[in-house]
Structure formats: C-alpha cells, structure tokens
Write the structure tokens for this entry.
Amino acid sequence: MRPFSYARAAGAGAAIAAVRERADAAFLAGGTTEVDLVRQNVLRPGLLVDINDLPLAGIEDLPGGGLRVGALARMSDVARSPGVRARFPVISQALLLGASAQLRNMASMGGNLCQRVRCSYFRDTASPCNKRDPGSGCAALDGFNRGHAVLGTSDKCIATHPSDVAVALVALDAVVHTRGPAGERAIAVDDFFLLPGDTPEREHPLEHGELITAIEVPAAPVARRSVYLKFRDRESYEFALASVAAAVRIEDGAVTEVRLALGGVGTKPWRARRAEASLLGQPATEASFAEAARGELAAATPRPLNAFKVELAQRAIVRALTTLTDGGAR
Ligand SMILES: Cc1cc2nc3c(=O)[nH]c(=O)nc-3n(C[C@H](O)[C@H](O)[C@H](O)COP(=O)(O)OP(=O)(O)OC[C@H]3O[C@@H](n4cnc5c(N)ncnc54)[C@H](O)[C@@H]3O)c2cc1C
Ligand code: SF4
C-alpha cells in the first residue's frame, strides 16, 4: 500500500478545494469501498479528504411527497426512516438487501453511488483492465465473466454496476445534487451513471473535486406499492446476479403506471424503459409481464458463462410484477 496523507475537512468548500488541489486526492466517507481498494493497491490516492464532519447526513420527507437524503446519510438510517418505508418501500428494501448490517451502518449514500465495480480483474492488479488502467485490455471479455453484464456492454468493459439502491433510485427518477468548482448542479440519476463505451474508466459525469451533497427523489404515489427483488448465489453479503426495482398502478385490470429498473445485468443501473412502454395499457397478466420482459432483454449481448442472466432477469421482472399485482390475472 502506497503511503498517503489524510485531512479532515471542516466545510464543503474546504473539502472541494483540498481535493481540487491534487490530481491524486479523493473524498473519504464511510471508507467501505475506498479503503478496501487502497489496501489492495488498486487505488493509490496521495491524499484522502475525510468529509464525515460535513452536515450532509439529513433525511427529509419533502412536503409534496418527495424525499431528500444527504450524501452522508448512512444506508441503515435511510432504510429504517419511517418516511422512506411508507412512501418508497423499494428504496428501503434495496438498501436492506445490500452488504451487511455492519457495512450499512458505515456506508454513506453518496459513497454507494460512487462505489467501484466488483469485477475480480479490476481488483487484481496483475490482470489487464481498461477501467483500472485505460488501454490495457479487458480480462473479463474471455475470462470468468459469469457475474458480468449483458446490457450496456462495450468491447472495452462488461462489468456490472454493483449498487442495489441505485437501481431503485433510477426507477424513481431521482436527482443527484452536487457542488463543485463550477458551483451547484442537479444531475438526473440515469445520467449520473455512464455506459462504458470507449472510456470505461469514466463512470460518472463528476468533475475532479465535485462533491455529491444530496439525492432527491420526486414524489411518486405509485412507489407506495413497490418492491425490490434480488437474486444472488447466497442469501446475504452477496451482490446481485439480477435484481428488479418495480412499482405499478393497475386500474380496471390494466397497467396505468409502471416503473421498472434492473440491477446485476447492466453496466449501469438499468431503467427498463422498453418494458415500461410495452406494459402501459396492457392487462395486468403474467403473459403481458413476460412479453414486456422479453422485449427488454432482446438487446442483451450475453456470453456463454452469463447467458443464464437473460432468462433470470426476465423471470425476475415477471416475479416482481406478479408480486405487486397479487399474482397477476392469468
Ligand atoms: C463486502 C461488501 C459487500 C457489499 N455488498 C453490497 C451490496 O450487496 N449492495 C450494494 O449496493 N453495495 C454493497 N457494498 C458496497 C457498499 O454499499 C459501498 O462500499 C458503500 O455504499 C460505499 O459508501 P462509503 O460511504 O463507504 O464510501 P467510500 O468508500 O468512503 O467512498 C466510495 C467512493 O465514493 C467517493 N465518495 C464518497 N462520498 C462522496 C461524495 N459525497 N461525493 C463525491 N464522491 C464521494 C469516494 O471518493 C470513493 O471514490 C458492499 C461492500 C462490501 C465491502
Ligand atoms: S470488465 Fe471492466 S472492470 Fe472488468 S476487467 Fe474488463 S475493463 Fe476491467
């Protein structure tokens, strides 16, 4: 592990300035991603700027029905907030199905959105990895890629985005608020996660030293009836092979509003817009759910080891929608 300096920031402006000053500086929140990667020599920051003293841990139910969560709010606090559980159960469930109780007590919401991929080649500094070392190649393309993505891939990177709660936030059109050298800005969460394309090393549109301050979720009455399902190799302490965030409103037996997003299968948290569009106005039946799921996964580019994810994701969508519609009329 390369030695690094550590500073505790007194205010947001000071934190931003400290990171801006050095190209090899980074923010430190709960440290559950950052410290792991520093220990493994994957990241070699020269300076870590601890932001835990900043007043960014609030969880606020907004009057119109929305939610504002500070970037330093801990995953466990957000998951058990009464407002989140009542208005956005999908967020609470996604958080509780992630990591472990100890990690959720440490891990912040801003850090969760910025966590790095779990691709084993990214963490193995002896392997080529375009994300860690741009231009070096991608060991996963012809390697052990059972857990890798089938949607949004490129010939440079096929790693899945690991966050669970980001999937729920993408389904709910959340907005990421930041403060940086150019002032404050608001980024739609779907635009916050970049596809790998030719530049997999660039995962977010954040500038160096741009600080996430809050995540805002607009009011969504449909989310009161929402669910997060996660399918993985073992029941705890494991990342998703496929997951679904879903919310749906049914009137007179037909789908009138629906939100769907997938985790574990995309290089970014995957808003299933094609499935949403095909469901609108359709009868709430297992047959229409299955057809919508097939349509969404039609764009998949599986490899022999992860081809099973195509069917798993389709089944996950059907299961989530039938769960929300009391089994769906058959
Ligand atoms: C064993 C294990 C299992 C896990 N399982 C899951 C899981 O099942 N599901 C899941 O979703 N996650 C899982 N995680 C990931 C975990 O949720 C993240 O590590 C955590 O959310 C990161 O938050 P943090 O506060 O610790 O971030 P840190 O480690 O402090 O920071 C992570 C990154 O975010 C940057 N950063 C932090 N805060 C800000 C900010 N406000 N603005 C800009 N940049 C910032 C840091 O510079 C760093 O690059 C797991 C982690 C581990 C170690
Ligand atoms: S899939 Fe992405 S993270 Fe994994 S080795 Fe390839 S470039 Fe690196």
Notes: The longest helix spans residues 308-324. The first strand starts at residue 5 and ends at 8.
